[in-house]
Amino acid sequence: MLRCSNEHEKMTSFQKVWAILFPYLLYYLAYSAVYIMLAFIQEVLMGSQNESWRKFMTQHAGTVSGVMSGLGMMFGIFPLIPMLKKELFWRAGMCGNAGGSDRVGLIKEMLFTGILACTSSLGLNILLTLTGFSDSSQSYQEVAKQQYGVAFVVGLILYGLISPLAEEVVFRGVIFNRTRRFYGPALAIVISGLFFGAFHGNLVQGVYGGCMGILMAYLYERSGRFAVPFLFHAVANLAVYSTAYSSSFRKVLFTPVGCAVLLAVSVGCIAAERRIRGKLQEPVM
Questions:
Q1: Do 170 and 23 meet the contact criterion of CB atoms below 8 Å apart?
Q2: CA 168, CA 244: separation in Å to the nearest integer?
Q3: What is the Cα–Cα distance from 220 to 215, expressed in whole angstroms?
Q4: Quick check: pTM over 0.85?
Q5: Burial, 77: exposed, middle or buried (Cβ in 10 Å; 0-12, 13-18, 19+)?
Q6: Which one-letter DSSP state was computed for residue 11?
Q7: Tens of each residue's pLDDT in the chain, 285 residues
Q8: Which one in 7, 28, 128, 277 has a CA-CA gap of 20 to 30 Å to 261?
């Protein structure tokens, strides 16, 4: 029987903190290096005599910036792949996996994860909007303008696939698992969630990201499957991004009643997930 590694017990507090922060720093440096290189190429093209390139770059500046950011994210996680494999192996093999083998139960779990992602992300966004909190941050307004400045299809790929994958590798795959190994699941859920919120760089997204990060870490801890937070993240991003382009949906949802219904459904999904997870963990007689 495989046993959990106790190597971390020999580490000092500083070594543990560094082990948790290092993956993010490595990702940020790799991301920044790729983005700077692409920005340099963009500047060269803008300064060239090719008028078609210059016109394209000017007319689609938001989309170009989004593509550059997406490429930076993908190349940024490459150095973390060995760390991710080690953490996932430790989680699944050395310390056991919380998941069960009931396919019907797994399908239900994924379904509830998707519904919870949709309702909680929209519900929290609406709450922050109705309270006026979203309008209180100029930096958030600037970030939101950039995010919605990309072409819609590019945004679907960027926010529905690339961003969730990169951020889940960093924050749940590596940082959460390492923090869990050092300090236990409860602290890992809170610490990784708050770190994820702070990563966004402004107060509005910090509050939103912190709440969603804690929820994603909680679901990951409950399921033991890396696919769960990734699915949650992707659906949540797509729900918020797509709704912004539908004025009819916004009229219905962005009301106190709409907010209350969405958050109530979210609470119901969490209760349902706990029930499903309990059944999956029941021993077969």
A1: yes
A2: 24
A3: 9
A4: yes
A5: buried
A6: S
A7: 344 456 666 788 899 999 999 999 999 999 999 999 999 988 887 777 677 777 777 788 889 999 999 999 999 999 999 999 999 998 876 555 555 556 777 788 888 899 999 999 999 999 999 999 988 888 888 888 888 889 999 999 999 999 999 999 999 999 999 999 999 999 999 999 999 999 998 999 999 999 999 999 999 998 889 999 999 999 999 999 999 888 888 888 899 999 999 999 999 888 877 776 666 555 444
A8: 277
Name the residue with tokens 């689609």.
60
Q: Give how far Cα 233 sits from Cα of 52, 161, 169, 182, 216, Å.
A: 37, 9, 12, 25, 8
Distance CA 122, CA 12 (A): 41
The full length of the chain comes to 285
Query: What single letter denotes the amino acid at residue 18?
Result: W
Q: How far apart are CA 246 and CA 78, in angstroms?
A: 36
Instruction: Write the DSSP assignment of 140-184 as a string of letters.
Output: HHHHHHHHTTS-HHHHHHIIIIIHHHHHHIIIIIIIIHHHHHHH-
Read off the amino acid at residue 135. Answer: D
